[in-house]
Specification:
The chain is mostly beta strands. 4% of the residues lie in helices and 54% in strands.
C-alpha cells in the first residue's frame, strides 16, 4: 500500500489527473492486506482503453522485482551511505523477493562481535539470513529509494548521538587538496616608509586509501623604502593514517611531540598515538583557547616553535580564538600585529586537563626519531619516548611515561582521580637526568591538575594547574635549547595556570578569567592574565544591552629577546539597533595611552557582516564575507597625522578527485571535507556547516571543516532551489576519518517542466502506468490515460526512455525548445521503437468467475 501510494503520489495535484484514478487507488489499497498477490478490478479506473494499462509494479504488496537498485539504508534511526542493493528471488517463495544484505553492508551495521560470529548466510554466502538475528526486519521502498532495516539495539556496538562505531567510518576517495590562508597589508605612515607585507600559510596534500600525505607551507614577504625581505618555507612533510582497530593514529615524517606529560618539540621520525578524536565526543579532550584585546583592526598569528598554526584578521576590541586543533599541546606563541605598526607578543600554555581514562582501557603514545629545528635541521641525538594511561577502576587512573636519548633521561609517574561531584584531580612527578658538555644535572618536577564543572552554580574551572621544578631539573625542550645554544637555558621554577567561567544568569552577569604565571630560578617571572566581566540588562524599550569590561596584563621575559610588559583596561557599552545591528562605545587604556571609540556592527545577510568604528583621532571599517570559494576579510583604517592602512585576508582551498573538483572555503588546513555531486547540475545550494554553498559549473561543491569521526549531514537547500531544478534525494549522511575526502551524490533533476502526450509509431499510446526516465535513469514522469504525462527535467534536444512491463520499450526525442506555456499546452512527443504489438499488460480485468480479491 505504501509503495503504491508513494509511487503515484507525484501525480496528485498535477494537471490532467483523472478524478476516478484517486478513488480507484483507495479501493485498491483497501484490500492490500488481504492477500499476497493483488489483482485489480479495472472497472473502477476511469479509462477509455481498458486493455492499455500496466500496473505490474503494484500487483504484490511490498514486492520489488529482482535486480540491483541504488538505495539509502535506514538502520533504525541512523542513515547509512547510499549503495547498490540487490534483490533476489526468495528460496522459500518463488513469487517473493528478498533484499541481499552483503557482508560489506552487514559490516557497516556495527554489530557486537558475539553476534557477528553467529550469523548465517544464503545464496552461497553472499546474503545474510535475517533469521540468524531474531527480531530483524528488512523492507525495501522504491518510492524513496530506501532500504529499511530494523534491529534490536542490544546487537550494536557502543554508539552515541551523531557518532558512529568504526565499522561505519568512511575513508573517502583518493584525491588532491590545496588549502591556503593569505593576508595582504598596505600601511602608509606619515614621514616614514610605506610598508607592504604579504603573509600566508597552508597545506598541500594527497589521499590514497587510508593514508594522508601532507606538506605544510608558510611564507612572508615585506617591502619598504629601506628594502625587501622574502621568505617561503615548507614547515612539515608528513604522512598519517588512522588505525581504527586500536583507536590510534600512525604518523611518519616531520612531526611535533604531542605529549600529555613532556614538553612538545619538533622531530623527524614516527609516532603511534591513541587518538581521542576516535572516541565519542563526550570522551574527548579539549582544545586550547587564546584570548586578548586588539587596539585596532589587527592580525593575530599563533605559532609554535616557528611553525604557524593559525593566522587571522580580527576587528578592534576583545577577541577569543577557540577553534584551534585539540592535538596542539605545549606553549603557543601569540603575535598581535596592530595596523599602526605596534606588535604585542605573549605565550599561552595549552596544558591538558587531568589525565583520566575509562575503566579497563589503556591510552598510549609512543614516538621515536631525531629532534629537528625548523630552520637548522637536525638537532640532537636520536630519542625514544612512550607514555600510557590505564583506567584502573571506576574513578582511578594510573599514568606515566619515559623519554630518553644518549644524554637525557626522564621518567614520570602519576595518578588521576575522578572526584565525582568535586571534579577531577591528577598528580604526577617527573625525574630527569641531563648530561651536558661540562656538567650533569639531576632534578625533579611535580604537577597538580584540577578540573570541575559546577552545574549547580553554572560555572566551570576549565583547567587549573600548578607545576614546581627543582633548580637542576631540565625539561626535554630546555635540554634541547641548552644543547643548541651551548649553555643552560630555562631554569623553570613554577607555573600556575587557570581558566574560570561563571554565569550569574539571574543577574545577567558572566565572568571569564584566564591566568598564568611562570617563574624561573635565574630570571624574573612572566605573568599574564585576562579578566572579562559582562552585564546584560534592559533599559526601557531597549532590550539586551550589555556592559563589559576587560582587564589584562602581559608581562613576558624571553631569554633571547628581552622583556616586554603591557597592562590595560577595555570598557564597552553595547546596545542593539535594528534586527541584527549593535552600537558599541568603548574606552581603553594601555601602555599609558587612553583611547575612546564607537563602533557599529551588523549583518547584511548570512554571508556578510561589517563593522564601522571611529575614535577621537581615527576611523576604520571591517567587512567579512563567507563565499562559496573562499572566506574574505577586508579592513581599512586611518589615524590622523599618523597612518593609513588596508588589509585583505582570504581563506580557502581546492579539492580534486577522479569524480571532479571544486574550489571552496576552508578553515582547518588539510582537514576533513565532503565533496557533494548534484548529478552534474550547477547552482544547487548545499547546506552543511554555516552558510550554504552552491555547486559549480560541473555540479560539484565541497563542504570543508567537517569533524572527523563525527556523523555529518549534507542536504539540498530546498527553499532556494532554482526554478528549473528539483531534488529527488536531498539529504545524505556519513562519518569520515581524519583528513578524508568524502564523496556523496544527491539526485537532482534539472530541466523544464511541461505536460506532454506520448504517441507510438502506430499512433497508439503507451499503457497507463508506464514510466519515463531521462538519460541518468531518473524518473521524470508516469504515463496517465491516453498517453498524457507530466514531465520534469526536460533538457531540449536530449532523450528520454519509456518503460513498461519491466523493460525499456521506446525512446523520446525532446524538442529543441519548450514553450513558455508548457504546463497548459501539451507537447506532442513520438516514442520511437515500440508499437501497439509491444503492449502486454501484466494484469487482466476480473471476471464474474473470479472468487479471490473480487472486491478489489
Amino acid at each position: 500500500m505504501y509503495g503504491l501510494c508513494a509511487l503515484l503520489n507525484p501525480l496528485i495535484g498535477k494537471p490532467r489527473l483523472q478524478p476516478g484514478l484517486l478513488a480507484g487507488l483507495l479501493s485498491i489499497s483497501s484490500g492490500v492486506l488481504a492477500a499476497g498477490d493483488i489483482q485489480f478490478n479495472t472497472d473502477i479506473l476511469d479509462l477509455h482503453d481498458r486493455s492499455n494499462f500496466d500496473l505490474s509494479q503494484f500487483s504484490r504488496s511490498g514486492f520489488i522485482l529482482p535486480g540491483t537498485y541504488p538505495m539509502a539504508v535506514q538502520l533504525n534511526s541512523d542513515t547509512l551511505p547510499e549503495q547498490s542493493v540487490a534483490f533476489h528471488t526468495s528460496e522459500q517463495d518463488p513469487k517473493d523477493s528478498l533484499a541481499c544484505l552483503t557482508p560489506e553492508l552487514v559490516g557497516q551495521m556495527g554489530l557486537k562481535k558475539e553476534y557477528s560470529a553467529q550469523l548465517t548466510w544464503w545464496k552461497s554466502g553472499e546474503c545474510l539470513d535475517t533469521r540468524s538475528l531474531p527480531g530483524m526486519e528488512v523492507s525495501g521502498d522504491l518510492s524513496s529509494s530506501t532500504l529499511h532495516i530494523s534491529l534490536p539495539q542490544a546487537y550494536f556496538e557502543y554508539s552515541a548521538p551523531n557518532w558512529d562505531p568504526p565499522s561505519r567510518w568512511d575513508e573517502g576517495v583518493p584525491g588532491l587538496l590545496l588549502d591556503y590562508n593569505i593576508t595582504a597589508q598596505n600601511i602608509h605612515q606619515r614621514d616614514e616608509s610605506v610598508r607592504n607585507n604579504f603573509s600566508g600559510n597552508g597545506t598541500v596534500g594527497a589521499n590514497a586509501g587510508p593514508w594522508r600525505f601532507r606538506a605544510d607551507w608558510q611564507g612572508r614577504a615585506d617591502s619598504a623604502d629601506t628594502g625587501n625581505t622574502q621568505k617561503l618555507e615548507w614547515s612539515r612533510f608528513y604522512a598519517y593514517r588512522a588505525l581504527p582497530s586500536i583507536q590510534s593514529r600512525l604518523t611518519l615524517g616531520e612531526n611535533y611531540l604531542y605529549s600529555d606529560i613532556f614538553d612538545s618539540f619538533r622531530f623527524v621520525g614516527a609516532s603511534l598515538n591513541s587518538d581521542d578524536t576516535q572516541l565519542p565526543p563526550n570522551l574527548r579532550g579539549y582544545a586550547p583557547e587564546v584570548s586578548g584585546v586588539a587596539l585596532t583592526n589587527a592580525k593575530v598569528v599563533i605559532s609554535q616553535q616557528g611553525r604557524v598554526l593559525y593566522e587571522t584578521l580580527v576587528a578592534a576590541g576583545p577577541f577569543r580564538i577557540q577553534d584551534l586543533n585539540d592535538a596542539v599541546s605545549g606553549s603557543l606563541d601569540v603575535r598581535v600585529e596592530e595596523q599602526d605598526g605596534t606588535v604585542t607578543t605573549f605565550q599561552v600554555e595549552s596544558a591538558s586537563i587531568p589525565y583520566l581514562t575509562r575503566p579497563g582501557t589503556v591510552r598510549y603514545k609512543v614516538a621515536g626519531g631525531r629532534p629537528s629545528d625548523l630552520h637548522k635541521g637536525g638537532q640532537g641525538n636520536a630519542f625514544a619516548t612512550g607514555e600510557f594511561s590505564w583506567g584502573v577502576s571506576n574513578g582511578w587512573s594510573l599514568y606515566g611515561g619515559a623519554i630518553t636519548d644518549n644524554n637525557y633521561k626522564a621518567f614520570s609517574l602519576g595518578v588521576g582521580r575522578d572526584l565525582l561531584a568535586f571534579g577531577a584531580l591528577s598528580f604526577d612527578a617527573t625525574r630527569a637526568q641531563t648530561s651536558l658538555s661540562d656538567e650533569t644535572l639531576s632534578g625533579a618536577s611535580y604537577r597538580l591538575s584540577y578540573s570541575k564543572r559546577f552545574e549547580e552554580f553554572d560555572s566551570q574551572i576549565t583547567f587549573a594547574g600548578y607545576r614546581f621544578s627543582e633548580k637542576n631539573y631540565l625539561s626535554i625542550s630546555e635540554y634541547l635549547d641548552a644543547s643548541q645554544y651551548g649553555g643552560p637555558v630555562g631554569g623553570s621554577k613554577s607555573l600556575y595556570t587557570a581558566t574560570f567561567n561563571k554565569q550569574f544568569r539571574d543577574a545577567g552577569v558572566s565572568v571569564y578569567l584566564n591566568y598564568s604565571n611562570q617563574s624561573y630560578w635565574d630570571r624574573p617571572a612572566s605573568e599574564r592574565w585576562n579578566l572579562s566581566l559582562a552585564r546584560y540588562f534592559n533599559m526601557g524599550t531597549i532590550k539586551n544591552m550589555s556592559l563589559s569590561m576587560n582587564l589584562f596584563r602581559n608581562q613576558e621575559r624571553d631569554q633571547r629577546s628581552g622583556a616586554q610588559s603591557s597592562t590595560g583596561m577595555y570598557l564597552s557599552l553595547s546596545l542593539p539597533l535594528g534586527r541584527s545591528g549593535t552600537l558599541s562605545t568603548s574606552a581603553s587604556r594601555t601602555m599609558d595611552k587612553n583611547s575612546y571609540s564607537a563602533r557599529f556592527s551588523d549583518r547584511l545577510d548570512e554571508r556578510n557582516s561589517y563593522q564601522l568604528s571611529a575614535s577621537d583621532n581615527s576611523v576604520s571599517g571591517y567587512l567579512s564575507h563567507v563565499g562559496d570559494r573562499a572566506n574574505l576579510d577586508f579592513s581599512a583604517s586611518a589615524q590622523e597625522n599618523d597612518y593609513t592602512s588596508l588589509s585583505l585576508s582570504a581563506r580557502g582551498g581546492g579539492t580534486l578527485t577522479a569524480k571532479g573538483g571544486a574550489l571552496h572555503r576552508s578553515g582547518s588546513m588539510g582537514g576533513t571535507r565532503l565533496m557533494v555531486d548534484t548529478a552534474g547540475v550547477p547552482d544547487i545550494p548545499i547546506r552543511g556547516y554555516g552558510a550554504a554553498s552552491r555547486s559549480n559549473a560541473f555540479g560539484k561543491t565541497v563542504i570543508s571543516d567537517i569533524s572527523s569521526y563525527h556523523r555529518t549531514a549534507a542536504s539540498v537547500d530546498l527553499e532556494n532551489l532554482p526554478a528549473n531544478a528539483e531534488a529527488t534525494q536531498s539529504v545524505t549522511q556519513l562519518t569520515l576519518t581524519e583528513g578524508a575526502i568524502g564523496y556523496r551524490s544527491l539526485d537532482v533533476i534539472s530541466g523544464e517542466k511541461a505536460m506532454a502526450v506520448i504517441r507510438l509509431l502506430d499512433g497508439s499510446t503507451p499503457p497507463f502506468g508506464a514510466t519515463v526516465k531521462n538519460q541518468r535513469q531518473q524518473d521524470t514522469g508516469i504515463v496517465n490515460e491516453d498517453g498524457s504525462v507530466y514531465l520534469s527535467g526536460i533538457e531540449p534536444g536530449k532523450q528520454m526512455t519509456v518503460s513498461w512491463g519491466g523493460t525499456e520499450r521506446c525512446t523520446l526525442m525532446l524538442p529543441a525548445s519548450v514553450p513558455a506555456d508548457g504546463l497548459v499546452s501539451a507537447l506532442n512527443l513520438l516514442c520511437e521503437g515500440a508499437s501497439a504489438n509491444d503492449k502486454s499488460p501484466a494484469l487482466t480485468p476480473l471476471t464474474d468467475n473470479d472468487t479471490e480479491n473480487k472486491h478489489l
